[in-house]
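EI: anyone free to look at a 295-residue chain?
SC: sure, send it
EI:
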Amino acid sequence: MTSATRMGVLALLWGSGFLWIKISLHEGLTPGWITFVRCLLGAAVLLALAHGAGQRLPRDRATWGRLLIAALLCNALPFLLFSVGEQTVDSGVAGVLNATTPLWSLLIGLVIGTERSLRPARLAGLALGFTGVLLIFAPWSAGSGLMTGGALALLGASLSYAVAFAYMARRLTDRGTAPLALSAAQLLAATALSTPALTAGGPAEVTAAGVLAVLVLGVLATGLTFHLNYRMIAEEGPTSAATVGYLLPVVSVTLGALVLHEPLTARVLTGMTVVLIGVGLTRFRTGRAKRAATV
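SC: here you go
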């Protein structure tokens, strides 16, 4: 699978996840149960793939310790925050706020030293991207803004992803463990970490649609997606992997409007456009920078 194809499939599967979360919530599942089940199903898929490929789970304590941190930052915490956030925020908006992950990744890269150059175009993109987020939140609007706990939870989930990408690239990839086995082990750890969330309340009357939605969420939008994401981090680096978030709003907004009939307000659409332009500018590199990156 080529890089472009992997990115397209990843964006489609990952972007549809916001729809499946919203349907699961509507059909009786709680955020805690959605988080636990998607981790469990995703782990089962990856374990089967790893077994078929003859890959073994890591056995040393050091790797499992790093996996626990990655599982918290990349799975258990953001999965729960997205489910909590979508209780009050549309699935399309959730995808738009998730698109801030590349912006957070750039900021983190500047802090930890992996991004040593912030050229004017990238600086403008960073400022423009977060201006788009501010436009979406509209804190100046008393009745129609998104300055809510749910929206803040979604933004926190995107930040958690960015931290996880940087950590995984530094501490987990290229260390001798095959990607499938590493992905499976991480989702196993995430399943364990998400178990306490079940005490927040059990599912209500879960419908067949809710069961189907969480199955798709766990098997396709978590298991398969996570494997593709890990491959991208290993082969292209954390910033390139986070750029998949650039495509998610288009998928989430389109599915939210077509399937759930979510309203497409001018403010949110404008904010999404500004965010995506900002993210695009942060990916800008001069010819010299591009050549240096390939050395």
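EI: The radius of gyration is 18 Å.
SC: 👍
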